[in-house]
Write a structure and sequence with these properties.
This protein starts with 9 loop residues before the first strand and ends in a 6-residue tail after the last helix. 51% of the residues are buried. The protein has two domains: 346 residues, Alpha-Beta Barrel (TIM Barrel); 61 residues, no CATH class. Helix 1 runs parallel beside helix 2, helix 7 crosses helix 9 and helix 14 crosses helix 15. The protein is globular and about 55 Å long. The chain is α/β, with parallel strands linked by helices. The strands form three sheets. It has an eight-stranded parallel beta barrel with strand order 3-4-5-8-9-10-11-12, surrounded by six helices. The protein has a two-stranded antiparallel sheet with strand order 1-2. It has a two-stranded parallel ribbon with strand order 6-7. The chain binds flavin mononucleotide. The site of flavin mononucleotide has 26 residues, from strand 4, helix 11 and helix 14.
Length: 412
């Protein structure tokens, strides 16, 4: 181990080596073409990040079905939908010996009204108020649709590998379809896909097996998983441990730990007590990660809240996790990983966003809107703009999406 723990390489169970311990966590770019293909802006953005020093870049979530989108400009990987830019994107983002993994996702019922008239979910249970204003009530998936979704995940993984991406991540967190299956609140099925935790995790387990069959044993396969849903009666930390253990035994190469859903959006802001240690205040899901570390050897990437080189170095050094996942810090400063790797004592500039107008802060998902604008700037070859007006970004979104779309709602 070197003095700067973040600079050490990491060998995954499949044999792949990640050159350092910094992972850029997935951030939805929402900048695909109208027909859900990537274009040159993706190449420009990922080239910038690859040069920034992270050992691993994970793409924003890519949808496996064009009829089930999380956002209007998601990239889609599905049969009959070719994307001629993918090889260029993979090449741009994997230069500088960087691993570039796709994150593949199905939103389930977290597909907004203006995108899905009737979204699907394990059970026909809608999101609670006020989110029911933004998302239509879902219908329950049939058994054959469940099997079709599993095949779609596997196909998206194959597309990733065939086009030069160096790994794949299943989005199993933040309340999307995989996470809906895991939750006893959202999954009340009485067949083999619901009920006990063994049944609820069958969906993700089958997705993993189908992907492995498609990509082989030497290709990194990862999952982003919730430590918990932070909802009464939802997916608990104990159940999450059971899932982690199971996926680890199946051969998962990296488990990324996050938390929360649209209904309890803790993924971009922890609920820490000011009396907690700096380490705990900074990394939202640290205590859970410490518990997971005790039960599995699978490499762990902890994401959410990391800001200082000191804390990052400490958690890697004492073995709580094997990688630190960074999102917003790298959206405003693509050079941040290089600064960390240089062994400097650095701190990210990420701060709580506000428009200064309470009403707007409540109705607009500021974290998503403002940071997505930064990604778009980099996609155009410009620098991010940390001083960008939060108010301007918020007003722009309200105009683009329509005030009704955001009324009384704060999704994520
Ligand atoms: C603009 C934006 C888009 C995001 N999109 C995704 C996504 O597509 N998939 C995902 O797993 N997480 C997504 N996240 C969550 C981040 O990956 C990460 O978990 C969260 O921002 C906490 O990390 P941070 O404190 O380093 O920002 C997104 C976050 C932001 C700010």
């Amino acid at each position: 181990m070197s003095l700067n723990q973040l600079a050490n390489s990491l060998k995954l169970p499949c044999g792949a080596i990640i050159k350092n311990r910094i992972g850029k966590s997935a951030m939805s770019e929402n900048m695909a073409t109208k027909d859900h293909r990537s274009d040159n802006s993706f190449n420009t953005l990922y080239e910038r990040w690859a040069k920034g020093g992270s050992g691993l870049l994970i793409t924003g979530n890519i949808m496996i079905d064009h009829t089930a989108l999380g956002e209007p400009r998601n990239v889609v990987f599905e049969k009959g939908h070719s994307d001629l830019n993918l090889k260029e994107w993979a090449k741009a983002g994997s230069q500088n010996n960087t691993h570039l993994w796709t994150q593949i996702n199905h939103p389930g019922k977290q597909s907004p009204k203006f995108l899905s008239k009737t979204p699907v979910s394990p059970s026909a249970i809608g999101l609670r108020p006020p989110l029911n204003k933004l998302f239509n009530p879902p219908r329950a998936l049939t058994e054959s649709e469940i099997c079709d979704s599993i095949e779609r995940f596997a196909y998206a993984a194959k597309v990733s590998k065939d086009n030069g991406f160096t790994g794949v991540q299943i989005h199993g967190a933040h309340g999307y379809l995989v996470s809906q299956f895991l939750s006893p609140l959202h999954n009340q099925r009485t067949d083999q896909w619901g009920g006990s935790i063994e049944n609820r995790m069958r969906f993700v387990s089958e997705i993993y097996k189908a992907i492995r069959k498609e990509v082989g044993n030497q290709f990194p396969v990862s999952i982003k998983l919730n430590s918990a849903d932070f909802q009464k009666g939802g997916f608990s930390q104990d159940e999450s441990m059971t899932v982690v253990q199971h996926l680890s035994e199946q051969g998962m190469d990296l488990i990324e730990i996050s938390g929360g859903t649209y209904e309890a959006p803790v993924m971009t802001g922890g609920r820490k007590n000011s009396k907690d240690s700096t380490r705990i205040r900074e990394a939202y899901f640290l205590e859970y990660c410490e518990e997971v570390r005790k039960i599995v050897k699978t490499p762990l990437m902890l994401t959410g809240g990391f800001r200082t080189s000191k804390v990052m170095d400490e958690v890697i050094g004492n073995g709580i996790c094997d990688m630190v996942g960074l999102a917003r810090s790298i959206a405003v400063n693509p050079e941040f990983p290089n600064e960390l790797l240089a062994g400097k004592n650095v701190e990210s500039s990420v701060k709580q966003l506000t428009t200064g107008i309470k009403f707007l802060d409540k109705i607009v998902p500021l974290e998503i809107v403002w940071y997505t604008e930064q990604l778009k700037r980099m996609g155009r070859g410009e620098d991010p703009q940390p001083t960008m007006s939060v108010l301007k970004a918020a007003i722009g979104t309200v105009f683009n999406t329509g005030v009704q779309g955001f009324k009384k709602v704060r999704a994520k």
